[in-house]
Structures are given as C-alpha cells and as structure tokens.
Write a structure and sequence with these properties.
- By secondary structure, the protein is α/β, with parallel strands linked by helices.
- It has a single domain, classed as Response regulator (Rossmann fold), CATH 3.40.50.2300.
- The protein has five helices and five strands.
- A five-stranded parallel sheet has the order 2-1-3-4-5, sandwiched between helices.
- The radius of gyration is 13 Å and the shape is globular.
- The model has no long low-confidence stretch (mean pLDDT 96).
Length: 119
C-alpha cells in the first residue's frame, strides 16, 4: 500500500481527497500546514505528496522548494492541488519544484487516475 502525504489546511478539500484515495487502497497521512508537512514527510518518506499552495504561514511554493532541497525527499514527487489556475500559475508552481498540478475543485471521477500518473 502506497502512502500519500496531503498537505492541506482546509477540511472541505482534505476530506474528499482522503476519502477517495483511501477507498482506492492508498494510506493517507495529512498535515495542516507547511512546516508540519515537511516534518511528516521526513519521518514517513511518502510515495507522493499532494500540496496545497495557499497554506497558512509557509505557502506551498516555499514548502515545495524546501522539500526538493532535502536529499531524503528530493525524489518524492510533489503534486500541487490548487485553485490557482491563472496564466503563469502553473509555471510558477512547477518552478517551485512541483512535479505536477491538479486543479481544485478536484474531479472525483478522474482524481485517482490523475494521482496515479505521478506514482
């Protein structure tokens, strides 16, 4: 069973993501902010990190950058799950170190397949 770390502060986003992925056989761990997400990632070394960009304190750009600088985590794929969908947002997200991008609100029909692409 693959472990996915979700770094998301909003319960209304975290719940459906967790529910759908657990139903499809993934183990989910969650962090509510960037700093605890980084600490959890170091402890668990997940197969994948799903990262919100709008986080309290340390935003997702800073979190992705720090995760990719960490030699223990540099090879863990990071996928931004975000409502940022304006021109240039995707480029900024990828430049911060994310390996992919899934737009919010997630589509329950395609979410698992989108996630599996990065595993």
């Amino acid at each position: 069973m693959k472990t996915i770390l979700i770094i998301e502060d909003n319960e209304q986003n975290l719940y459906p993501e967790t529910f759908i992925l657990e139903k499809n056989g993934f183990q989910i761990i969650a962090a509510r902010d960037g700093r605890s997400g980084i600490e959890l990632a170091e402890k668990v070394k997940p197969a994948l990190i799903l990262l919100d960009i709008q986080l309290p304190g340390m935003d997702g750009y800073a979190v992705a950058h720090e995760l990719k600088r960490n030699p223990l985590l540099a090879d863990v794929p990071i996928v931004a799950v975000t409502s940022y969908a304006m021109a240039g947002d995707r480029e900024r997200i990828m430049a911060a170190g994310c390996d992919g991008y899934i737009e919010k609100p997630i589509n329950p029909e395609t979410f698992v397949e989108e996630v599996k692409k990065y595993l």
